[in-house]
Amino acid sequence: MTDQLTRRQLLERAAVGGAAITFPGILAACGGGGTKAAGGTTSVEHKLAKTLHFSNWTYYIDTKGQTNPTLDAFQKKTGVHVDYREDINDNASFFGKLQGQLSRGQSTGRDIIVLTDNDRYLSLMIRKGWAEKLDKSAIPNMKNLVDVQKHPSFDENRDYSLPWQSGMTGIAYNDKLSDPVLSVDELLESPKLKGKVTCLNSMGDALCMVMLANGDDPTKVTDKSFKAAFDRIKKVVDSKQIRAFTGNDYTPILARGDLSAAMSWSGDIAQLGNKHIHWNVPKDGGALWTDNMLIPKGGDVYTASVYMNYVYDPKVQALMEAGDPKRKIVGIYYIPPVKGAKEEALKLDPTVAKNQLIFPSQQTLEKVHLFDNKALNNEKYLTQWQNLISA
Amino acid sequence: MTSVAVEQRTPRRNTLAAAFAFVRRHVLTVYSLLFFAYLLLPIAVVVVFSFNHPAGKFNYVWQGFTWNNWLHWDGVPGIRSAIILSLEIALFASIVATALGTAIALALVRYGFRGRGTTNILIFLPLSTPEIVLGASLLTLFLNLNVIFGFWTILIAHIMFCISFAVVTVKARLVGFDRHLEEAAMDLGANEWTTFRKVTLPLIGPAILAALLLCFAISIDDFVVTYFNSGSKVTFPLFVWGAARIGAPPQVNVIGTAIFVIALAAMLANVLFQMRRAKGAS
Amino acid sequence: MGFFHRHRGLTPYLLLAPGILWLAVFFLVPLGFLAYQSLQSGNIDFGYAFTWSWGNYWTAIRDYRDQFIRSLEYAGIATVLALAISYPVAYWIAFRGGRWKNLLLLGIVAPFFVTYLIRTLAWQTILSDDSLVVRTLQNLHLLGANGRLLNTSVAVVAGITYNFLPFMALPLYVSLEQIDGRLIEAAEDLYASKFHAFLRVTLPLSLPGVVAGTLLTFIPAAGDFINAQLLGSPNNHMIGNVIQSKFLELTDYPAAASMSFILMAGILVAVAIYARIVGTEQLTGTAV
Question: Chains that contact C by 3+ CB pairs under 8 Å?
Fold first, then answer.
């Protein structure tokens, strides 16, 4: 935890990083050339490190006051101290921070990081060889991975990544200011909502939703379907229907009543605690995204894999997800990727286990889709999108 | 200053002029108070919301009053180390940057030397560089030097971008500085160093204080450059940005308010102390 | 006069050395990397190579001319506003502050100890569509019936102005505080009105402060992005936002780098013109 990162631990981390710096570092070119980091064909030594450096998003793990119960339990079980830092807030900026080290083959000082699959960086890291291969022999619990996540297009055999949590993108509306907004069509074109609507600034979310509303398939993007969706959004930007493109900063605007409706993520609304704000998957479908664990180059593969295995135990996952009101443990409240977690969660907190946003039904899951990964890395599309939201 | 002497100049025996003078004298004060009200308006909101008892994780709508946040000001994991780090860095960075900046300002204003023009441009350049490329390029340098990221890299970065502010602020004081006082001191037998210490330094004191305050404010609020060069350390702005994603907890308001209040209280104490000392001396 | 005159040649260099060295290592070298990057071409997938790609600069100007100009505009307006707003207060503190000067000075800066994000969130609450402020403006017909203050260019400029007030106010104060009140007295002794005394004595003497404050406000404001991001809407973003997106989202480091240099050049040109107007000695200082 950030509180306990003492100078000693910093030096310890540097020692780990230092070992990785000397060898590939010499090979790396100066000034950011894209050299491929030295490939790891050596087999992984089955020795646990003293510390696991885990970088994650904020509030993305179970908490009890100042501690994280599942991390403490992991330490008790394996003797590995988890140095948990919540220093990821945004895929783009986190990647921007790490790419210098990654492109030089230097260690990033982290063993596990978490990136989202409906943004380009996850697949980019895997493609560029900047992620270590998981030690699957240490992750027997991988069999508990839900089927729909077993063969994603960016990592066909799950060699490099494992889901951490998933979430859905849909529409939130304020019932004090508007009738229910249940479709993207309404969000974009209803004159009653003019200037009181925001759209997400992530291409994977926004275009996915609009393509679905257009009747196109977001999992297989073509120039034609991209153009249709893009033009449609551009039109409503010009007509000032959309007030702003936001990241997660739509929540205060929504809470204040400056917005009637917003394209938004499921977890945020659950945590808002405002009974006038409702979230739904639009009638044409919504987006599904998953934050994945990744071992950046230079990270300790064995220890990281052991941790991942621990997390894929349904009992552990259930505790992380739903928390335990009896022990005052607060859960994550996103969507777990582990089979059997729901059954375990029922024992801990039945209300959470039955919450559709956290344990959605098969019906709901069929209405959400993951955006085409190839489109996420298409420079042309990306530039057009950035020019639109940053004009 | 001799503002008292200026005030006592009675307007020419005209009641209208007297009225005008009255209004004019107080308009400035009223305006300035309005200015401070404007400046502090959002702070008032921050303070109020530090007592809020939010329903969910978001602290945007007033729900109810509670002392809890103040009692458990470090109840949020990571917040304490973040604010301590930010304060440390801001303190050291502002002191070092002001020292370096004052020296540069003295050199620029008082001496003709080769490269004055270039130096001036060099001072303006960091101000004009967008933070993101500034932070990323400094990161590149650190990577090439294989340094460990953390307290020192953050401090180095902060000193770097604060120097320019210190230089420009102190220079504003030095341009138009009356050299006669120094010359008088030297005529009376004081050497370089004594003149500097006893005449120059006190006279540019306000500028140095202003530079310190400005650098402190810049440092404690810096985000982008810090983000790139902090490794895994978290400063207060980084913490707030991270927490805001899910809803900044009221403790953030508590700490912000606390720093604000403590700084003012410390300065107030200092002022009152000086006043008492002056009274005691007289 | 001993040491001073004999070693006059060395003193300025001794004074400059530590600071300039610091900047040379921790700013100029990174700037060199940036310059190198700006002439690269390529992308993240296949790597970047140094190709003397001057085209990056041309593309940047051609494609983002509007944002460049808009940034200079917004920064300029914000600077003028900040000057107009801060000058009277700096004057008040300098001449009427008395023993409370330091406290008042701290009072200007202290609000900025509360993080930017929290301050801005508070402003968003104060200026929300349903707030007293907005409703009053609507009643006064200064704002349309459905008008709003947030997510507009007005909000962006207001945000920049507010956040740069200390950078204008403090240098102004520093310069005003040093003005000897007896000079003003003397002017009035010579039958100048208070206003004339101000115009002919105070204002010119405070010019170094005005110049310093203007520079410390305009220059960083031109590259600002965060105010536009949080308070703006899609069509009033600044060049800082574009550079940000080039760097982070598009991983187009050469573009981000070249755009940064164009921004810096634009700022230097603006500053040079400004120096012409106010007189270069104000900018560079005179060696007396």
Answer: A, B
* B160 → closest Cβ in C8, C27, C108: C27
Same-domain pairing of B88 and B140: yes
Q: Which residue has the tokens 């402060």?
A: C209
Question: Same domain for B164 and B93?
Answer: yes
Q: What is the CATH number of domain C56-287?
A: 1.10.3720.10
The band of A12, judged by pLDDT with boundaries at 50, 70 and 90, is very low
- pLDDT of residue B17 exceeding 90, the answer is no
C1 pLDDT more than 80: no
Do C19 and B100 make contact, defined as CB atoms within 8 angstroms?
Answer: yes
Decide if pLDDT at A293 tops 70: yes
Is B278 in a helix, a strand, or coil? Answer: helix
- Give the predicted TM-score (pTM) of the model: 0.88
| Distance (Å, whole) CA A139 – CA A295 | 14
B121 and B176 within one domain: yes
* Chain C residues with CB-CB distance to B103 below 8 A: 15-16, 18-19
Strands (E), B115-233: none
Q: Do residue C105 and residue B119 have CB atoms under 8 angstroms apart?
A: no
> Out of C37, C125, C230, whose CB is closest to A31?
C37
Q: Tell me the domain boundaries of chain C.
A: 56-287
Please tell me the distance in Å from B233's CA to the nearest CA on chain A. 7
Q: Are B120 and B205 in the same domain?
A: yes
- Measured CA to CA, the distance from residue C30 to residue C266 in angstroms comes to 20
**pLDDT recorded at residue A4:** 34
Distance from CA of C72 to the nearest CA of A (A): 15
Subunits close to B (at least 3 CB pairs below 8 A): A, C
| Same domain membership, residue B217 and residue B266 | no
Domain that holds residue B33: 2-45
Q: Which residue of A has its CA nearest to C121?
A: A252
Same domain, B213 and B145: yes
Minimal C-alpha gap between C145 and chain B (Å): 25
Any residues with CB less than 8 A from the CB of A235 and at least 6 apart, and which? none
- B63 and B7 in one domain? no
Pinpoint the alpha helices (H) of A160-243: 184-189, 203-214, 223-238
Q: For residues B188 and B104, state if they share a domain.
A: yes
Partner-chain contact A244 C250, CB within 8 Å: no
Which phi and psi angles does C40 have, rounded to 5°?
-90, 165
- At C253, give phi and psi (nearest 5°): -60, -40
The 10s digit of each residue's pLDDT in C132-158 is: 888 888 888 888 877 888 889 999 999
